[in-house]
Each structure stands twice: as C-alpha cells, then as structure tokens.
Design a protein that fits this description.
Layout lengths: L3 E7 L3 E7 L5 E8 L11 E2 L1 H19 L6 E8 L4 E5 L9 E2 L7 H8 L8 H4 L8 H11 L1 H8 L3 E5 H10 L3 E3 H4 L5 E2 L4 E2 L1 H7 L8 E3 L2 E6 L8 E7 H8 L8 E5 L3 E8 L10 E6 L7 E8 L3 H9 L9 H6 L9 E3 L17 E3 L7 H27 L6 E4 L6 H11 L3 E4 L4 H14 L5 H7 L2 E5 L5 H18 L6
Helix pairs in contact: 4-5, 9-14, 10-12, 12-13
C-alpha cells in the first residue's frame, strides 16, 4: 500500500491537491485560483474546463514538490463546492454551458414557480431542502428552459449533469457518479432511500438520463487515469461534510463550523433524520460503504469570507484578506455599525432571495475600521442565527464549537464568535479540515486508516477561545443585528 493519501479540494475560489500522511499531517499542497464570472447582478459562473485544467496542474505540482509518484498513493479522495452545476456532452466530455455556482440567484423566479401553492416546502419532506436558488436541480432546469436545443439534447440522452465532484470523477475515471452527500444537495434525491426519485425529477423537470450513479462517500469509485494513473479513487464528500469528517465530528450531537467563502455549521444527528422546522437543511453527513447513512442538520450562510473579499476587491479598503483584522482592531467596537451580507439573498435560517446587502447604523462617527469590524461580526451573528435554530429543531445544546476554514486564523473574529455564542470556540492544530476529510474518506475505504477511532485520535486542539462578554451586551448587539437583517428584506421586486 502507498505511503500517502491524496485529496482534491475543488472549492469555490480555487482548487487544491494535498498529500496526507498517516498522522493526518499535510505533506505537500498546491493551489490555483480560477476566475469568478459575474455576467449580471446575481449571476455567478465558473468555467468547468478551467477548473479541470487547474486540477491537473495542482496534482502535478504537489506530487513534484514532495518527490512522490502516483504509486506512492494508497488512494485519492475528492471534496468539492456543493450545488455548483455542470452540464457536459456525454460523447466528448466538453461542458456545454458555463457552470452555475451555488451562490447564483438567477433561479429565483423559477423556484417560486416550482413551489406553487405549496411554497418553498413542496419537496422538503423527501429532500430535507426548501426550494431555494442555492440547490442544483433548479439550476439544471433553468439551463434547459433557457436553451431549447439543450433541452432536446438532454431529452435525447446526450447530456450529463453533475455537481463538481461528478465533473472531476468523470475526468479522472470516466465514470459518471456522485456521492450521497452531493446528491443530497440537488433536490432530486430521496433522503431515506438515497436514490434519484421519479416524483422529484418530474417535479423539478430534470431528465433521469442526465444523472450519474449515486455511490457511498467512503468506497472505491474506480481507478484514475492520467496523472494519477492506477490510483483508486475511493472517497467523495461535499466540502462541508468533508470538514465534519476532518474535524472528527463523527458522533451524534457533535458539530463543526467552517468559515470559508460562506459559513456552514453542521451538527451530526447520527442515523436519525431530523426534519427542520426552523430554516435549517437536513442533509446526508456521510455513508461508509453500504452501511447506514449518517445525517446532519446544516445551517448554510452564503457570505462569510466572501464579505472580506468584497472589501478587498470591490471597495479596495484592504490589500489582502489578512489585513482586515488589523483594520478592525483600530476601533474598540463596531460603532453601532452592522453589515448584512445578503449579496445572494439570505440563506439559513431566513431563506429570503429578495434580500440584498445592507450597511446599517452609519453616522459621521463611523470609519473604515467600524465597517471592517461589522463585516467580521456579521459572520458571528449569522452563526448565532443558525445555532439558535438548531436548538429549536433538535434541542441541541453545544458545550463547545469546533471551527475550521480560512477565517479561523482571525483571532478577533474567533473571540467575538465565542462571546456571541457564550460557549468555547475550539480551533484545531490542522485547520485545513476539508481536504483532510476527503483524504480520511479515501484512506478509510482502502484500509490506510483502519477505523473512525484512528481518525478521532489524529484530531488535536490548538487554541480555545473562552467567552468573556457580559450577557446584557451580547443580547444588545444581537438585537441590533436582527433589526439590521429586517432592513435587508424585500429589496428585490419580482
């Protein structure tokens, strides 16, 4: 067996390839960003061909940097931005449209039409998801409605649909497949049977012939060709489920929060499928082989790190994302300024596609430090929104919260998060938990790691942020946040 496990992390802004050793350490990693395409307000696209090209580049670079051959790999896993939708020609393997990104809101009118008299909950019992612009199924339907020629080709069985994992799997192995975690984000899979559902396919309007095979998260999908020739592809997890795996939050009641482009809080509900009544998603956490699936409740926040990028790229207030902490520390508090980052509407627990971004509470006193602080604090407030919904849905009272993702290096944010939740926030030694989770899934499938306990034993705490804010101040700030959120509603008219 090879000495390392490889992991492809195909994210919203970049693609990475990492080599992981038995102790869960990253031996080598290469990364390459891809273009973010904004054809008009609310639309977000990627070039799937560019992403595949970047995937090949980072695989080559990481292997070369470590002096490793594909034969040194026990297996390789994939984790990916979920919901982002790719259509390609089955015969040529060439994408036939730009990829529609999970943040894209062009399907707003369509999802209202699909809901009809039943509203956003029309398919929720089977899918665990409210009808929203976030999910992949309506994106496919929109593409087919937009181009009758594509619709005819899809009906004739010539086109394939997949989320980014499926696109990468197809290019690596030639197999058209997706795992249960990614399939659970399409609105086309029944959560209980883990299979494509005819009623959902007909309701959303997606031909079955476009869909790949649904496989477990942990298990061999096929053998790679090309740069990874002969290496078993043995694990697939959507990025947030991969982060849960990498954080070893594998028992019922354990939770993690990932601070990336968006912010995603998942709590493991074990084999119990908990249906949300407070704006959360019910999703598949993972499936090991043919075993029973594990489920999770998820709170999905569209804009977290993307708000920092907006300050950098659109407003020019900072030159790098890391600069926001120093700018925010120039002021003692938020100066009563609140930022609601509803660039793509608001996700959990509000699900308002008519919302748009708001800066509230501005006076002549406010400066760029207050705005920077408000952008950071927005992520913590949104996490509080989600955790309150989880308490209401499942009676879950977390004793602490494991955190990961790029933003957790920001200690001002992590302290404010602990203050806003009134529980300790724990940052692990290895914060690249998404890529780690993909490696764990692939390694577990081939016996590189023999059990979930080995994965748990690899996890180690780095820093624990203890809450230190007075309760009255916490509730004052949160109350103002909720007032600001209400100001973002109803901005977009039909």
């Amino acid at each position: 067996m090879g000495s390392f496990v490889g992991a492809i992390d195909q994210g919203t802004t970049s693609t990475r390839f990492a080599l992981i050793d038995k102790g869960g350490a990253i031996v080598s990693m290469a990364q390459r960003e891809h273009e973010q395409i904004y054809p008009q307000p609310g639309w977000v696209e990627h070039d799937a061909a560019e992403i595949w090209a970047n995937t090949q580049v980072v695989i080559s670079e990481a292997l070369a940097d470590a002096g490793i051959q594909p034969s040194d790999l026990a297996s390789v896993g994939i984790t990916n931005q979920r919901e982002t939708t790719v259509l390609w020609d089955k015969a040529t393997g060439v994408p036939v449209t730009p990829a529609i990104v999970w943040q894209d809101t062009r399907t707003a009118a369509l999802v209202r039409e699909l809901g009809g008299a039943d509203g956003p909950g029309r398919f929720q019992h089977k899918t665990g998801l409210p009808l929203a612009t976030y999910f992949a199924g309506p994106k496919v339907r929109w593409l087919l409605d937009d181009d009758p020629k594509l619709a005819a080709r899809a009906k004739a069985g010539e086109l394939a649909f997949g989320t980014m994992d499926s696109w990468i799997v197809s290019n690596l192995t030639g197999r058209h497949a997706t795992d249960v975690t990614n399939a659970s984000r399409t609105m086309l899979m029944d959560l209980e049977s883990l299979s494509w559902d005819d009623e959902l396919l007909a309701g959303v309007g997606v031909p079955r012939s476009m869909l790949g095979e649904i496989v477990p998260s942990v298990g061999t999908v096929g053998r790679c060709t090309g740069l990874l020739d002969g290496t078993p592809l043995a694990g697939i997890l959507g990025d947030q489920q991969a982060a849960m795996f990498g954080q070893a939050a594998l028992g019922a009641g354990e939770a993690k929060n990932t601070y990336g482009t968006g912010c995603f809080l998942l709590v493991n509900t074990g084999t119990q499928l908990v249906r949300s009544e407070h704006g959360l998603l019910t999703t598949v956490a993972y499936q090991v082989g043919e075993g029973k699936p594990r489920y999770a409740l998820e709170g999905s926040v569209a804009i977290a790190g993307a708000g920092v990028q907006w300050l950098r790229d659109n407003l020019g207030m900072i030159s790098s994302a890391e600069d926001i902490e120093a700018l925010a520390r120039q002021v003692e508090d938020n100066g009563d300024v609140y930022f609601v980052p509803a660039f793509s509407g608001l996700f959990a627990p509000y699900w308002r596609d008519d919302a748009r971004g708001v800066l509230a509470g501005l006076t002549r006193y406010a400066n760029k430090g207050h705005i920077a602080r408000a952008v950071l604090e927005a992520t913590a407030y949104q996490t509080r929104d989600v955790l309150d919904a989880m308490r209401a849905d499942a009676g879950i009272e977390l004793e602490s919260l494991k955190v990961d993702g790029g933003m957790v290096a920001n200690e001002l944010l992590m302290q404010f998060q602990a203050d806003m939740l009134d529980i300790p926030v724990i940052r692990p030694v290895v914060t690249e938990t998404t890529v780690l989770g993909a490696a764990y899934a692939a390694g577990l499938a081939v016996g590189y790691w023999r059990s979930l306990d080995e994965i748990r034993n690899n996890w180690a705490e780095d820093i624990r942020f203890e809450p230190r804010m007075e309760g009255a101040e916490r509730e004052r700030l949160y109350g103002s946040w909720q007032k600001a959120v209400s100001k973002s509603f109803g901005w977009v008219n039909d």
